[in-house]
Amino acid sequence: MSDRMRVLVVDDDENILLVFRGICKRKGLEIADFTSPIDAYEYLKSNEVDLCIFDINMPEMNGIELLKKSKAIKGDTEFLIMSGVATVENAVSAIKEGAYDLIQKPFASLEFVISVMDRALEKRRLIREISVLRSQVSQESGFCGIIGRSPRITRIFDIIETVASSGSSVLIAGESGTGKEMVARAIHQRGNRREKPFVAINCSAITETLFESELFGHIRGSFTNAFDNKEGLLEYADGGTVFLDEVGDIPLSIQVKLLRAIQEKEIRRIGSTENIKIDVRFVSATNRDLKALISEGRFREDLFYRLNVIEIDMPPLRERDGDILILAHYFLSKYSRVMNREIKGFSPDAIVALENYRWPGNIRELENAVERAVVMCRSEEIQVSDLPQNITEGIVAEEGPLFDEGDSFLAAKKKVIESFERNYFLRLLERCNGNYSKAAEIAKMDRSNLRKLVKKYPDVYNRFK
Predict the structure, then answer these.
(1) Separation between Cα atoms, residue 217 and residue 211, nearest integer Å
(2) What residues contact 166, with CB distance under 8 A and at least 6 apart?
């Protein structure tokens, strides 16, 4: 099978088949079309198809019956049903048997048919991608436990490999939750100090009065309650790596002593006159602007340059194209095992919500959201309703109900689709800064078709002219 997606169309009206041939040619899709549902079913048994479109009223076999038979042998394929009478009964029957949607004939417009096909094919693409991601997650744990394939994160992998075997100090900068400690551990694991200790010190969690004792140790009787000699963390880490997390929170009184330890490669326990040689590599991390702290007199400039020999800038999750879904499936697999749940993946709507959210808490927030979703899930897939409200509240506008109680099925459906499309295009173009080529690539749509669809929503279109 080629890389192009394949559509199977079955209708006893040759003119309808001509319409779909034109659509598929325009969209770059392969097409197989039949007037006989029996011939179509035989074709389906031996060929891979991404989307099947069946007319509901055909002489040899009706579309619902063909849908049932086809669904049994092609469970992952998407199906659309066409009907000259778009009744609620037809719609319910089609959806119940597994159809993605119902298309009324005669067609309101070709653009409408294309938009329905696009959404069905997008769901099929997502399911195929999920299958690949699930396979990758089960086969590998990433680079030293760091999961991702985006250019931004693979660049970090390259830097880690380059600097791991040197003894130079490394400063890892980035927002909270981006995985700075995992990068520090990867540097340690890939370097020649891997057999020695990796000591992580949370600088924001140690009070100023205890900081010196924790880092440098003390001797018996050096202060109240110093009943025994104590080895400091820098001494304990000899030969290995010390990770100073939230290094910007180190008190000024300790910064000068830390600077001396780095420069002289020796420390002195509190109360002692003896210097102790240490061989330690320093890796630090911060989510604060250390240069601003320097200008405010809260961080020593000389210490900054000692710690910042090599700087690594961790990208926020929202800038790691494609990694949100990879990480989401990794966490889904992790927590499904922990909780002994059998959850296959995320629904298409849940995927849209995950990809459109900004993730201010980065990977840590994503992991928390997926763990919650696994707990809340009551089906084979994570649904939008299983995700935290702050992630999903922007999907549907808060102006009130999407449709009126008195609306017909088709009128209500049209309003829901328009609401989804408007919100999807708005967030997509915001993410791409109005770049239609990049947006079309992400949406897996033709650029001109994307622009035409966006034009339906003047407020969105005019914003990104």
Answers:
(1) 9
(2) 191, 310
Question: Pick from 39, 24, 49: which is nearest to 110 by CA?
Answer: 24
Supply the pLDDT for residue 425.
86
CA angle at 281 for the pair 279 and 283, rounded to the nearest 5°: 155
Mean pLDDT of the chain: 87
Q: How confident is the model at residue 127 (pLDDT cuts 50, 70, 90)?
A: confident
3-state secondary structure labels for all residues of 142-182: CECCECCCCHHHHHHHHHHHHHCCCCCCEEEECCCCCCHHH
Rg (CA), the chain: 30
- In 340-392, alpha helices (H): 348-356, 362-376, 389-392
Q: Look-up: residue for tokens 């790691």?
A: 320
Please name which of 340, 315, 341 lies closest in space to residue 327, comparing C-alpha atoms. Answer: 315
Give the E-state strand segments of 213-355 in sequence order.
Answer: 217-218, 230-231, 241-245, 266-268, 275-277, 281-286, 310-313, 345-346
CA distances from 393 to 359, 385, 414 (A): 14, 10, 21
Cβ atoms within 10 Å, residue 366: 22
3-state secondary structure (DSSP) of residue 313: strand
- State the amino acid at position 397 in one-letter form: A
Q: Are strands 230-231 and 217-218 parallel, antiparallel or unpaired?
A: antiparallel
Q: Cα(291)–Cα(177) distance, rounded to whole angstroms?
A: 21
Check: CB of residue 249 under 8 Å from CB of residue 204: yes
